[in-house]
Amino acid sequence: MIDSSEVLHFMERAAARTRGEDDADDAPDDAYLATRSEGVLWARDRLHDALQHVHAGGEVPKEARLRPIKKAIVTAMRPVTSHQADFNRSALGAIDGVVAEAERLAVDMARQEQASIRLQAAVATTDLTVDDINDTVRRFGDEVERMAGTVAELRAAMDAQQVRISQTIDRLRSDLETVRARQDLIFRAAREALPGGYDVATLSQLTRELSTGYEQLYEDLEDTFRGSRDHVKALVADYLDDLAKVPGRGPVVDIGCGRGEWLEVLRDADVPAYGVDVNQVVVDRCTERGLDVRNADALTHLREVPEGSVRAVTSIHVVEHLSLDTLVGLIDAALVALQPGGLLVFETPNPTNLGVGAASFYLDPTHLKPLHPQFLEFLLLARGFAQAEVRFLHAEEGKPRLQADDLGGSERAQGVADHINWALFGPLDVAVLARKAAPADEPASPA
């Protein structure tokens, strides 16, 4: 007999699946019901249609027309159709398995689609989050740049303020030194005016130290050993660049102007200037050349000029004639007379050249003693000048120089050779250029 109940149960289960009524553990979920393909639905419909004919070959439905005849025929054909039920069951089972697998795949695809949608949503959310982060980072970067700009502005302002403070301190220090210099000059004059002190003639300190009574002889000596006028003018013309850095149009006062070469250079450059010298022969010669030279004691003259009215004070080959006391007085008087930022120039023979310090220096019998450039630099700074620069001048040309090979050729020999060359053939003169402190709002030019 055909196990029609099993076939009917299977077909009913398949039909229930098509209606979504199966409560089995593997029943499709809502995602499947919402996403079943038309192919799966068509297969389920065909299984439902086949359910009505599952009895074919095994029995005749009760409602069939001519049922007795058909039943007799089925009974007669049973030897031939005895396996029809198994075939029907196997075929329907295979079909149901295929449909079930299709359902499972559809469910999996629906789940994957949902997962893909969730992933896309997550990616979109991540993109938005990344965009927000980028915006935040950009705003933070802008803020950092703004703060960096503010810090840079503050640093620049602080640097500028520090420069102003430093300039103010330098100016106050210079003012204090100027007051001290003025006080020293007053004390000098007061001391000399005391009863039993110096007479009136001794008030002219430079006159006392520079006057020899042999003015013409001294001029002849300078003509012989100083060099031609054109040569000296070419040497001193370099100071024009330094003078150009000094603001203002106050006069240049040349102390001990000698033959007036420097005054001629200044006149040709349209720089207001005049000289002061105690040698009447010098004054007469310069006057004949149309130069403004005054026969006076320079120290006394500087005390009398209005304070802060002089652009520059120059003294070329004079300080080596002075005692320390007079030299300090000259420096103090120059500091008071100079305008803020004004320039002081001392040029003197270079004693670090042994040929100068030990020999040619004494060609002039009025020279008192060589002055080391480091001492002059120290003295100018100690007496209140804000800046000082040592500048070696007028190197000898054409003299043979010692080479390292002459001493063995080693690196140490080169150093020894350089030292000997400097000592024997170094610059003949040295200048110390000093500047009075500039106003607080005006930086001083390098000396």
TL;DR?
The protein is α/β, with parallel strands linked by helices.
Write the layout of secondary structure elements.
Layout lengths: L3 H16 L10 H6 L2 H14 L15 H10 L1 H4 L2 H110 L11 H6 L4 H11 L3 H8 L2 H6 L7 E4 L5 H8 L4 E5 L2 H9 L4 E3 L2 H7 L5 E7 L7 H14 E12 L4 H5 L14 H10 L4 E9 L15 H15 L1 E9 L12
Parallel strand pairs: 1-2, 1-4, 2-3, 4-5
Antiparallel strand pairs: 5-7, 6-7
Helix pairs in contact: 1-3, 1-6, 3-6, 6-14, 9-11, 13-14
Following the backbone from N to C, one meets helices and strands in this order, namely HHHHHHHHHHEHEHEHEHEHHEHE
Low confidence ranges = 24-28, 31-35, 197-203
Gap from first CA to last CA: 131 Å
What is the global morphology? Answer: rod-shaped
CATH class designation of the largest domain = Alpha Beta
Total of DSSP H or I helical runs spanning 4+ residues:
17
- What name is given to the CATH topology of the largest domain? Rossmann fold
Radius of gyration: 58 Å
Your description of this structure?
By secondary structure, the protein is of the alpha/beta class. It folds into 2 domains: 4-134, no CATH class; 198-435, Rossmann fold. It is 58% helix and 11% strand. It has helices spanning 4-19, 30-35, 38-51, 67-76, 78-81, 84-193, 205-210, 215-225, 229-236, 239-244, 261-268, 280-288, 298-304, 324-337, 354-358, 373-382, 411-425; strands at 252-255, 273-277, 293-295, 310-316, 338-349, 387-395, 427-435. Helix 9 (229-236) packs across helix 11 (261-268) and helix 13 (298-304) runs parallel beside helix 14 (324-337). It is rod-shaped and about 175 Å long.
